[in-house]
Amino acid sequence: MKAVVFCAALATFAVAPAFAEELVARQGDDSVRLSDAACKSELVLARLDPSSAEQYRSASAVFQGQRFQACWRVVGNAAHLVYEDGDQGIIPVNELKPELTA
Question: CA 30, CA 41: separation in Å to the nearest integer?
Answer without folding.
Answer: 21
